[in-house]
Design a protein that fits this description.
By secondary structure, the protein is α/β, with parallel strands linked by helices. It contains seven helices and 13 strands. It has one domain: 3-Layer(aba) Sandwich (Rossmann fold). It is globular, with a radius of gyration of 18 Å.
Amino acid sequence: MKTLNKPVVLVPACNRMVGNFPYHIAGKKYIDAVHLAGCLPLIVPSSTAAEIDELLEFADGVLLTGSPSNVHPSRFGEEVHDPSLPLDPDRDEWTLPMIPRALERGIPLFAICRGFQEANVALGGSLHQAVQEVPGQRDHRGAPDVPDAPPELVYGFAHEVNVVPGGTLASIVDRPSFQVNSVHGQGVNKLAPGLRVEARAPDGLIEAFSMAEAKSFNLCVQWHPEWQAAQNPISLRLFKAFGAACQSFRDRHREPHRDPDR
């Protein structure tokens, strides 16, 4: 059987009710961004803890997507602050244990918004459940008071991030600051041990981090670089860097295809 040429990137799906029926859902913009990175997306509907290692055997990269749902507060030792907000405990159940296993294997990891929060919690950190209620923090929720807001408004630039020199993000973007969108209510409270801050918002909130001692590329960002990524020079750099890391992992770990007739 011919092996695939492109790196395979696992993309965890969310769990959503559509009408009266449960669905697994992954946003098209994330899939488009994986293609932009030069990789082949593989949407994973759900998994069990026992299946994680088998899934990672196929993976040359992992993209943790954003979502309307929040990480369940019980995962960092708190009660639910606002029961009206959506949760996705089924996603938590397998993505949280998957994250340290992927990093341990050296599989490139790119985490966005909810994925950023998942990574911090999975590695031992905690979250603010409502950043806008924390003294000194701004409201990072985008356009929550606009009913049926168009995507261009929701994902429009909201503030700058200030890049920490010497890190992964700094090496990719090669500039001290840039504009990002902002569509989140949760945010990092306690950063997990071993993680390095890569960027902060003007109010000091952590906007990007990485695990400096990991075996391969990993970057977690609070904003949404996948939104119109092909038209955003910063997003292009981020996804190209992720794609290059996935290709490098594949080159090191997959047997090259050999023509059986030669």
